[in-house]
Write a structure and sequence with these properties.
disordered N terminus; RNA binding; rRNA processing; nucleus; mainly alpha; 340 residues; 16 helices; repeat
């Protein structure tokens, strides 16, 4: 199946060629000439028509009226008024694709890529990804690979790999997704995101804990040292969700032993425990947190977080106990100031 969308006779304003053969009034019956361009009056009339269609569509939007395209004419009006909107172009593409009109869908894709301003990189990329989505579901592997190369050529490679790998993952093409994740790790090894995506792929899709954990080791070898804590936290969270909770706890404890004053890390650990419904472990962690010798503002936030947690557990006794401890903390600070 060809995925070429070139069509010399394509007319964006209707069916068939835009320019039709007309007789020149000065020609004889034997000699006829065909127009190859619009006359000034025809071009002016066409421009006026386009502006009028844009004005009508804009009025609907301004008045808050819902524009629900149901026909080719409806879509033409919308994309004419919003040529840089990938959303409208993709809806137009889907309109044809859902009716099995793949040739028409591809023609709209081609128009969208040509019409969207080259500076609107995200909008153009959205259309390219919609194109990939379409072909990935109906075309051969070779055709899809050819299209992917074209998309990579005209768009930001990193963003393309990100979007396409997700498509493969969601469609169950695990090996294809893994190939792209590995490519990203090889090409963009200094980016935290590529390692967390590859790790999650092994944790969630492949369910290979050994490979997932090895991915963390590789990440630490490639990433700058300043990113080590962040990527390790991400893998600890994935252990909670897809691997072994106890191993996740061990990773967090190791991090906190090295960075005991990083309240953000304590909070992430607490949130991860709550999400995993590790109630007693969360409570034990908060008990440790309220003994930290941090700035009063940070301690206030910790006490509030602990109170909110116990409130959700509907334990009034524990809530009162924490409030009492918070008051004791405040009094101790006031007493220290008086002593000074």
């Amino acid at each position: 199946m060809s995925i070429d969308v070139e069509d010399e006779n394509f007319n964006p304003w209707g069916e068939g060629p835009l320019l039709k053969s007309v007789e020149d009034s000065n020609d004889t019956d034997e000699a006829k000439k065909k127009k190859t361009h619009l006359s000034k009056s025809e071009a002016k009339a066409l421009t006026k028509l386009e502006k009028e269609e844009i004005r009508k569509t804009e009025e609907l939007v301004i008045n808050g009226e819902e524009i629900e395209p149901k026909s080719v004419d409806d879509f033409e009006k919308i994309v004419l008024a919003n040529p840089d909107s990938s959303l409208h172009w993709i809806q137009y593409i889907a309109f044809h694709a859902n009716k099995g009109e793949m040739k028409e869908a591809r023609l709209i894709i081609k128009r969208a890529i040509e019409k969207i301003h080259f500076r609107e990189e995200e909008e153009r990329l959205n259309v390219y990804i919609a194109w990939f989505n379409l072909e990935e579901s109906i075309s051969s592997e070779d055709e899809v690979e050819t299209l992917l190369k074209e998309i990579l050529k005209y768009n930001n490679e990193y963003k393309v790999y990100n979007r396409v790998s997700l498509i493969y993952s969601q469609s169950g093409k695990i090996k294809k997704a893994e190939e792209l994740y590995k490519t990203m790790a090889r090409k963009y090894g200094k980016e935290i995101e590529v390692w967390s995506k590859l790790g999650r792929h092994y944790f969630e899709s492949v369910k290979n804990l050994k490979e997932a954990r090895f991915t963390l080791q590789r990440a630490l070898q490639h990433l700058d040292k300043k990113h080590h804590v962040e990527v390790t936290v991400k893998f600890a969270q994935m252990e909670f969700k897809y691997g072994e909770i106890e191993r996740g706890k061990t990773i967090f404890e190791t991090i906190l032993s090295n960075y005991p004053k990083r309240i953000d890390l304590w909070n992430v650990y607490a949130d991860t425990l709550v999400k995993a419904e590790e109630i007693q472990a969360t409570r034990d962690l908060f008990e440790r947190m309220i003994t930290l010798n941090l700035q009063p503002k940070k301690m206030k936030a910790i006490f509030k977080k602990y109170i909110d947690f116990e409130t959700l557990q509907n334990d009034d006794f524990k809530v009162d106990r924490i409030k009492k401890k918070a008051l004791e903390y405040v009094e101790s600070k006031v007493g220290a100031l008086d002593t000074d």
